[in-house]
Batch of 4 targets.
Target 1
Amino acid sequence: SSSSLPYRRVVLKLSGESFCRSREGGISMAEVEATSKQIKTIVDQGVELAIVCGGGNILRGKQFAAVSEAIKTPTAHYMGMLATCINGLALQDALENAQVPTRLQTAIRMENVAEPFIRRRCLRHLEKKRVVILAAGTGSPFVTTDTAAALRARELEADVVLKATRVDGIYSEDPERNPHAVRYSEISYKDVLQKGLQVMDAQAVHHCMEAKIPILVFNFQREGNMLRAVMGEKVGTLVHA
Ligand code: UDP
């Protein structure tokens, strides 16, 4: 029952990579559907869930701005935010196809396809156990969807930020470069920031630290991990005070 859940309200950050095949770009509905099946397992536990969509599978503002002198950096960031809306729409249909009721709310208005993000309305949906998909990040350029996830977690008073990635957690060094890198099972916010560990952007970690919201970084591709994460089992790396 939901009374035994370690986390009552969860913000799940799905990076763009969970919308496409490994080392590819664009959207793969097969991947989105697989992710949605995992999401259904946690919704079935009775958690209140808000999902912040990344957009890196389509476009990252910083990278795109570097490609040409013609494109202004803020424009590239707005394009990145719109990319997260494309992902959000795909996720919404995949979840509803799996019988999970959803609402899509965006930080940039697009009333023909989604509700605007309104904190109190979002909370109401969560109370009614609708999964709220949050897209367009913060609505402002120069930040990432990690920061959006941290900010939404703060304003929605979430109990945890789950960061779904393709690595098993936070390592002392890049595990793809150094095979001797060790994975932390727990680490403090301060250590993540001081060691400059590349897991979540520093602003996001800072917000979670200020609000004392733990961050769990885990590999969403391992079957059952999302459920384990929500049930408070030891999986990935837990960042806390
Ligand atoms: N973005 C932004 N403001 C926000 C959130 C995102 O400008 O509040 C832009 C930014 O350019 C970013 C892109 O949207 O690169 C896609 O998001 P992100 O890179 O965080 O996606 P992920 O790495 O999770 O796939």
Target 2
Amino acid sequence: MRPRDSVYLHESNDKSSEKCGNLNMTKITEHGKKVRKNWTSYWIVLQGSSLLFNKGQGEKIISSPRDVLSLNVLCVYQKLEFSVELKGGSVNWASKDKSSKKHVLELKTRQGMELLLQSDNDSHISEWHKALTEAIHTYAWE
Ligand code: I3S
């Protein structure tokens, strides 16, 4: 278990499915039971098959290219609240009955958690849809 309030760095290549950024999130089901919505802004880091939810502002540092084809992305996060395992999960655009907000993704985990991810920026949320879909697909068979 990682101590809280330390600084963590996660470096990846920008062509991989790994990424970080701010999204609004609410859980709607936990351990298979419906829970009351509580929309909160998180700094989210996609790291392999894990999605890390951090309170407070993180940082995405794009460092000098090591080669001409790829940038290096450094995701900095400090206040890890919780994480979810994507392996065996699914992500889809949420239906209108799930939320009145625009640009909402519904993420379901094998552990029985369902949560909504939202951004007012449609290209931002589309990138997350792509990255999460790729991560779920990549780790599905491991
Ligand atoms: O699915 P719901 O119940 O319509 O979701 C809304 C409520 O959770 C509401 O909270 P209260 O029931 O405590 O007033 C939230 O403030 C809204 O944001 C929720 O709806 P959206 O459509 O924003 O997900």
Target 3
Amino acid sequence: SAADKGGWSSFMAKEVSEEPEAVANTIRGRVRDGQIVVPELDGLDELFTSITRIIVVACGTAAYAGLVGKYAIEQWARVPVDVELAHEFRYRDPVIGPDTLVVSISQSGETMDTLMAVKYARERGAKTLSICNTQGATIPRESDAIVYTHAGPEVAVASTKAFVAQITALYLFGLHLGRVRGSLPETEAAEHVRELEAIPTKIQQILDREQSRIDQFAHWMADTRSVLFLGRHVGYPIALEGALKLKELAYIHAEGFAAGELKHGPIALIEPGQPVFVIVPSPRESAELHKKVVSNIQEIRARGARVIVIAEEGDAAVLPFADEVLRIPLAGPLFEPLLAVVPLHIFAMGLSTAKGLDVDQPRNLAKSVTVE
Ligand code: G6P
């Protein structure tokens, strides 16, 4: 049954191994002739052309998926997108109305903070779209439109495969919106669809090639007291997600930063031996950002940081400054987060296991937080 570990050491190990399928199943049935066709969004063209802004509301890992989605939706659909923690949203009298689409993201569909944000948005006249992994849950039932993620049941408390499925669903929505609003040329959209369809195989390659090495250095790092994560552009929310997973699973102090912010504060934290994960943008696709992040790596390395780099295959510029290099297959700039997060999920799980902790049921946490 789906609630079985199926030979894996933990539900999370099983669920991380299912990240390729989570993406593939979320895309399935939603591409026709190389273009995105989301049947659930049929008949909503008028709504999607009339909105002037989008606010994404979510908690935890789902909110980081929202932050990734913001980059893609703004680029493709040219609608301003804000991402807000659901519990902050409704207590500040936000400026919303009929021209606002509030997109909620929730694996369980039962998170009380997110549900209350959705209800509040509706009361204020906003339109609501739910991205949810659980058929018939409360949040989708309270929403005007639904795009389900098809990650399958997620049992481990901390979210992994649902995260990649949430990004996938946001991308399907962004491509759909770009077409409906006429802001995304068909040829460009078709290229993005091809990119998205190639993601499951690329995630599988990471699992096949890097898992044992990541487990090994997670083991070496079992005594580490603090880990930092740096990323830029769509790599920034991935840095936040990498840090959250480490807190949740390994009870280690961890923080994610926007790499550009380093010199404005976080660099003061760097001392000899400090482990820092750096998510490096593609040198082919984002040459300018790549250069800036490589120079960040040089700066922290010069101060003694132990640098673990997540970089595209063939990126040689990172080699002189990295203690470890984890490779991800080539992908367009907006698609890298779906790959870069995989080594971070493996690492957090590996470190938790190395410390002898329960990866599926971390202390103090609940899978679905149904109180405010
Ligand atoms: C809890 C879980 C997290 C999850 C968050 C949001 O805090 O421990 O893993 O990201 O809730 O859950 P949701 O079901 O709304 O996605």
Target 4
Amino acid sequence: MAARPPHGQHSAGGNGSEPEIPGRPGVEPPQLEEPTEPRGPLPPKADQTKPEPYSATGEEVDTDANVRAQTGPYLTTAQGLRLPDTDHSLKAGDRGPVLLQDHHLREKIMHFDHERIPERVVHARGAAAHGVFRGYGSATSVSKAAFLGKDVETPVFVRFSTVLGSRGSADTVRDTRGFATKFYTTEGVFDLVGNNIPVFFIQDAIKFPDIIHAGKPHPDREIPQAQSAHDTFWDFVSLHTEAAHHTLWNMSDRGIPRSFRMMEGFGVHTFRLVNEQGGTTLVKFHWKPKLGVHSLTWEEAQIINGVDPDFHRRDLADAIEAGAHPEWELGIQTFPDTPEQTFEGIDLLDPTKIVPEEWAPVQPIGLLTLNANPSNFFAETEQVAFHPGHLVPGIDITDDALLAGRLFSYLDTQLTRLGGPNFAQIPVNRTHAPVNDMLRDGLHQTGVHQGVAPYHPNSLDGGCPFQAAAAQGGYVEVPVETPKAAKVREVPASFADHTSQPRRFWLSLTPVEREHVVAAYTFELSKCYENTVKERVLRTLADIDPVLCSQVADGLGLPAPDPSGRLAEVDPSPALSQVGNSWPTQGRIIGIITDGGSGLDAVRTVRDAVDAGGMVPLVIAPAGGRFDGDGGEPVTVQRTFANARSTEFDALLVAGAPARGSDAYGARDAKAGLGPATGGGEGANTDPRVLHLLSEAYRHAKPLGGWGAGAADVLAAAGCAAGSAGVVTDDDPRAVLGEIVELLSRHRVWDRFPAAAVVS
Ligand code: HDD
């Protein structure tokens, strides 16, 4: 994979080491020159996109001819006037007053004053990427959507997000993640605006402002930021027990993903697909990540929020830049479109319910690959506007009352956020299909509409544009019968069961996952001040599972209530657990700790093998720079003992020295101890920062390894004795790496939990 390592590998922490391509010995990095004279436009980076190639009315345009800001040779005003000086205001003498006539000063400050737009009211913090979706053709029997056809390739833009935090909040908070995909299909834009959790807190959109008010910081002091661990959130979810299911998912490891690349995505609602013959099928959409579903530990997530609040954003951009393009399969669960719209007793219009995959398997219908980073965060990631009502022929909605409110909300919010009704013309939002609308004028109108008769029918423009029937690709809503019923504000009886599905989720988790759930509830509720709130949550937990309830109650020092009735009898759904399978290790980050004094050949060997295996090797040493003392090809240091934190690595390796006389991996000199080598017992000299690095990684159940003299002592000094679960030592560095990769494919050394989960 990695043609070159991500930015962050070179830059974080500013250790002064020069960029070099790990695993590509001898390739000299390009040197930045001091610019001395104007030059032509800068080429975009390989993983960044060109400007949107479609005009506001959908025609393909030559983007190379378009203006690309800040790439031409001379500075201009917004009007294209070349400027001789942008560093000094126009003044009456160099110490005199600034003149009002300074048009450049006025334009520059005016524009700066208006650079910010309102952040999204929810999902404000996000990161995005461009990509492509390829249909498998397997869905054509149920949907006529052209982009689902066999091998049809459709450009996409995907934005991941947290829900509660502000734009500048940290990435790895405990929260739901948004997973919104814009498909630029030939029939118009289709947006699948989903989350990484398959259910929602509420069953009716009218409560959305309430759940969000409860989850956002308290209105008086505006704390806490980006977290649910506070009284108002738990007050709301305990008073609206329909939220119990979503809350339980949030308290599980799903609430703290390892990476956007390792999350599932869900359309949540039930949608209605329509095929060429007009036949309809109810479906739920699923995104299945090729890398599997993996999470952080809670302590890791908290540390990362301090040491690298951009962790997920960086991870996504770095992976794409390195060529490790993340992939997801789109799948559907299908259900017969009966008048009841239920499946095995589950009301498909209730967004707080899932249908277990064992009952209705997820059938793959296409592949999503993210392969390009945005070239401008504001223009693309910030201005992208999703809307569940952006549909294409072959995909229709159902009467889910949560979805109904969303169909109103998403258009409405863009008016405030993007400043007017023409946001569809912003490059990232432009459809790739021709646009012949009769929408006119308004703020930020960039289309130059032709014709004199923007109304229908007309005779002055020859009747154009004509309406398109289904046969001409027109979007015709499925003529579903609406119920003959009284107008009421009521919830159906079939929505009333709020605990059996959370119970199934709980029972489907492995012991270690359950332990994490208990710890999460206990942590969050211990941050609440009001005992009544905690007691109310415990009452809901008692109806989900008495063990869950009593363990959380113990942690809070409160009595565990009895269930209010008989517990639901449900079978577990193994598909809900994250633990047990093995997954590709592409893009995983392996730290190689060395003092550079000896055994460099082994470091080179392992570094190159990690790179060749599609993972990312980072050499960690006492200081930045390069090692070439053995006369071999230089080894560049990417991290130092001062700036390396265990949370960045999926596994750590200790490069010891070969035993004297050994030529196991060709070292010239033997020296042990990763620190000031002052003699004495090996490991005793080890730099405390290395010990911290290793012991923290051990506590987070990461695979650890080492080879050569001294490595086992260093590991033992850090409390990670060779032979304990997931600690691999051997004289042969390749053998160590092989076992480490095998452990990594299962994400963590689960055997180390629960004992190791106790945070010291
Ligand atoms: Fe929403 C943004 C997902 C219910 C109102 N929502 C937003 C985003 C995602 C979701 C991923 C971010 C899109 C982006 O990256 O720009 N929302 C969901 C899911 C829901 C859901 C999966 C339930 C199944 N949302 C929901 C309801 C309402 C909203 C019930 C209001 C009645 N959501 C919004 C919004 C946002 C939004 C206020 C904020 C920014 C935006 O739309 O463009 O309109």
